[in-house]
Amino acid sequence: MTTEFGIVYAGHIITSHFGSVVSKVCDCLLRRGPLSSREISRLAESDINHNKVKDILSLLIQHNCVQAFSVEPPDGSESKATVQYIALFNSILHRERYSKFSKVVKEELGPECVDVLDGLLSNGRLTLEQMIDRDRDRDSKGSEVIKDSLEKLVAARFVERVPSPEPVLGNKEEGPAKKRGGKASKIFKEPETLEERVLEAATPVDAIRFPFIFEQDSSSTLADEDSNISEGKRKQPEVDSSGPSNEVIWRPNFEELIRRLRHKACVEIVKERRDEGCANVLKAMLEVGRSQEKKAKPDKSVPVSMGSIYEELIKTEAGREMTQERVEACLEQLSATSSYLPAFVIESDDSYIVDFKSIISVAQKDEMESVVMRRYGKEAFRMFRYLSQEDRFVETDKIADAALTEKKDTPQILLKMWKDGYLHMQKLAVTGVYMPFLLWKVNKLIVSRQMLDEMYHASLNLSLRLTHEKGSEKELLLLPMEKLEGALKERRNKYRAKSVLLASTKFKLDDAIMLFHDF
Amino acid sequence: MSKRKRPEPKSSSSGINEDEKNILGLIRSKQGKGATTSEMRSATSIQQSLITKAITSLKKSKLIKEVPNMNNKGIKHFLAVEFEPCKELTGGDWYIDGALDVSKIEGLKEICVKILERCERAKKVVTLDVVYKYFDKDGGDGDQLSREQIREILKNLVLDNVVMEVKSNGLSGFSATRIGEICYKLTGKKGCGGGGGEARDGAFALVPCGVCPHIGICTPDGLISPMTCVYFQKWLDF
Ligand code: SF4
């Protein structure tokens, strides 16, 4: 879900990381969708000639912000497929979350792996050789350590082989004429957006994406295996082997990194709304089911048995303190519903399923409601909650009655929320009644979109303000801290406090953005 | 509810004309709900101008009164003087003299929260009955509350996110209740979203932009911008 401010924010990220010329090309792609390099040089400003556009595209591909692809020409057509480029909005936004990704890896695999991941995050894509070179220029841990770390990262799926540089999309799938419904479509759900289709076509099968590389050193053996393994996949991906040394090229796997953040967020949500015990049980369930998650963000986990939950739990110190009886009590609590909390876990036969969607929806709801509360007040908060609960159009006076708010004030409050896009309104003209009835509804999808757009906007604002603060204290920041005294020292401290507040707020706001966009 | 104070006044309607008689009859038949002019028109097929005239004269002779409709502002209802306006017109139990009795509602909400706190301390499950009995016992101020009113208060607390509804499953904690009966518990989120809550405040609501009335017109280089805005200025005032 990209929104207007999402695009502006993505453009801002690119500008601050790569400069305004690169940002112009990226903006062109974000706003207009896939384009060929010729089209980009025509549409972007005149000072960016075709060659420059190509260089910029290579840079953006290197940093995983753009993916090339082409569409198979129609049957019998002589024309050659032109290469098009698509901006990867999500990957651009991930650039602001690198510290979160590093933290995940640090907790799970330790500091050596973090160094390798950080190298990939800041360079976009690297071969093992390049990683070793990079290490040599720094605090040199040695090639064995680097190789070992990379192996661990690939095994944990935090790092993957780069996708096919230019997958070809089947032409037939283009048309919207596909019949919906039917058995087949229920089983094979079509990817929805072009971006998803391109990414799917570019991604190699798992055995190539996360190979056990280190058994055989020669990349040529790998290349042979590629074609065998990828047979049967819709589009055969060509793994990029165009690097100078013909070595395998690696990049961070955002899908897995986001999955871990999603799981962590779910555990946190449960911890806050239930308790530590429930959170531990949920964590164990996620751990058991993780390797079987087929999609990037499934609505539900696979069923896990009580036995496997317990087995996983006792691997941790906190888990070992729990008796089986206590685990059962936690599962009962997790499956309970009330007007306050939905069920987080679904019991089916003798197994349990984590309902990701329901856990995440609780946090989304809290985000929405707290904005409504602070922006429009307590009465509006009640009305909003009432309408969310009803999930249908309700007439003004009925809302006032249900929320026990003054009838005179109710329309104004509702109108205010409607103007800001937080409510849906319908007029109902009734014969004989002078004024049309107004009906109101909370459309969760529209509110989420509206909030997301505003959150991108706020993130952009925080970022701009941070840059502004830094710019206005440029000279002061050049002076060494220990030399500062009196008023200057105070000013420096103030600057520090401001930038810490801005940065930490932005960090937390990004968690909320992920809640609505990535989880 | 509407109450008939005087049954059928004697023909004080002497001296009124035929149209007025018809209209008065209609209004009386509608009791506490009264009739609107458009209803009079369609029921009696008397011309609008004559209806207006008749109403003025009936009002003057103190046979009818005008009551605004709380639910539909701008629409006037005419009631025979002997009737009290019904709930639909006044807005319901919580309205006095056309205004919502907010202090009464808030007071009752506070009492309900106290009852819930007391019961939770005593590990007692709270149903509507339990709260009703408390009020029955304590509410000696002559202000009898109906079960429906108490239910409305509890529902309101649910909307405030202070109280939650839980359906009894008949097990452990709910043994004193029927399965499926609605029970009430405190969410632990006091003061509806502010302070001491169990659930966190949203991250977005804590950014000035999250509650900013100008977010729609704020742009990086506009008149209202993050570089110059007063909200950031205040927030970053260390
Ligand atoms: S930067 Fe200032 S004016 Fe702009 S949305 Fe945020 S708080 Fe409002």
Explain the overall architecture:
The complex is a heterodimer of chains A (about 525) and B (about 240). Chain A folds into 4 domains: about 5-95 and about 160-250, Arc Repressor Mutant, subunit A; about 255-355, Winged helix-like DNA-binding domain superfamily/Winged helix DNA-binding domain (Arc Repressor Mutant, subunit A, Orthogonal Bundle), CATH 1.10.10.10; about 380-440, Orthogonal Bundle (Arc Repressor Mutant, subunit A); about 450-515. Chain A contains 25 helices and 12 strands. In chain A, the strands form 4 sheets. Chain A has a 3-stranded mixed β-sheet. In chain A, strands 3-6-4 form a 3-stranded antiparallel β-sheet. In chain A, strands 7-9-8 form a 3-stranded antiparallel β-sheet. Chain A is mainly α and about 525 residues long. Chain A is about 60% helix and about 10% strand. By secondary structure, chain B is an alpha+beta fold. Chain B folds into 3 domains: about 10-90, Orthogonal Bundle (Arc Repressor Mutant, subunit A); about 95-200, Orthogonal Bundle (Arc Repressor Mutant, subunit A); about 205-240, no CATH class. Helix content of chain B is about 35%, strand content about 10%. Chain B is built from 8 helices and 7 strands, in the order H-H-H-E-E-H-E-E-H-E-H-H-E-E-H. In chain B, the strands form 3 sheets. A 3-stranded antiparallel β-sheet of chain B has the order 5-7-6. A two-stranded antiparallel sheet of chain B has the order 1-2. In chain B, strands 3-4 form a two-stranded antiparallel ribbon. In chain B, strand 1 and strand 2 (about 75-80) form a beta hairpin. In chain B, helix 1 (about 20-30) packs across helix 3 and helix 5 packs across helix 7 (about 145-160). Chain B is flat. Mean pLDDT of chain B is about 80; it is low at about 1-10 and about 190-200. Classes of the chains: A mainly alpha (about 525), B alpha+beta (about 240). The interface between A and B is large, with 58 and 56 residues. The complex binds iron/sulfur cluster. Iron/sulfur cluster binds next to helix 8 of chain B. Iron/sulfur cluster binds near residues 208, 209, 214, 226 and 232 of chain B.
